[in-house]
């Protein structure tokens, strides 16, 4: 859709480079999925989400995850009012449309469990009551691959709830020069509101109507199934959520590109981000410096691709 070209233009007024991260944030927003971002500090992860929130006029909250964080700091709590001799509910920062869970792997298991309910069920439980979260609801979590002290490995069940794991790399010299010049001169432009939250929900309904040829569904399932085949480098492969994530993300990407059908290239464009966090390497794989991306590339190269003329428009 041309509308998304306008959105990308607005975002790039603020964000220099990081095209893959920006695209995947928009795809996840349309597909109703969550994103795990892995990258060093200072790579515009927070700024990207804040910019997207402004463009769609959505509520944005940033939560800094620390080892002493409690579930109530995330979801809210019940407060006793002495004057009225009654309890009232104070809602936490999770009640927003776009949540930045900064350094998510620094929080303990109880906090991860509270976030898991919000991500999967789109609700939180405070005391004995459950409260629905307002759609669209997107969690963008970051983790720093450099520092490992004071961190907790994310449970596999929670990793599986993320549609994407996007690896954010450093900008090249030209991009970094543009970033420095823009920040030093204070020349950071304002972005315009282009969509409403209601527009996003309407677009999601249209994404669901994007056609996926049965041959492509089989192609996706075969790719994911190959991650579970016996291999010296893989301990565990992807769950069926990997197949669902690839298909839904490919539909959202096709919709963004003004197509009402999914192509092979759509699937290949989202496969790594959908699978890399769902493949657990064996000890032998780690010892030989094999990466999830290398495994995914090999699987895609070996799985027979449907012929383009067999995919219906």
Can you offer a commentary on this structure?
The chain is of the alpha/beta class and 313 residues long. It folds into 2 domains: 2-184, P-loop containing nucleotide triphosphate hydrolases (Rossmann fold), CATH 3.40.50; 209-306, Magnesium chelatase subunit I, C-Terminal domain (Helicase, Ruva Protein, domain 3). The protein is 45% helix and 17% strand. The chain has 13 helices and 11 strands. Strands 2-5-8-1-9 form a 5-stranded parallel β-sheet. A hairpin with a 2-residue loop joins strand 6 and strand 7 (129-132). Helix 2 crosses helix 3 (45-55) and helix 9 (214-226) crosses helix 10 (240-256). It is globular, with a radius of gyration of 21 Å. The model has no long low-confidence stretch (mean pLDDT 85).
Structure described in brief:
With 313 residues, the chain is of the alpha/beta class. The protein is built from 13 helices and 11 strands.
Layout of secondary structure:
Blueprint: H1 2-14, H2 19-31, E1 34-38, H3 45-55, E2 60-64, H4 71-75, E3 76-81, E4 86-91, E5 98-102, H5 109-121, E6 123-126, E7 129-132, E8 138-143, H6 156-159, E9 162-167, H7 173-184, H8 197-208, H9 214-226, E10 234-236, H10 240-256, H11 264-275, E11 280-281, H12 283-287, H13 292-302
Parallel strand pairs: 1-8, 1-9, 2-5, 5-8
Antiparallel strand pairs: 3-4, 6-7, 10-11
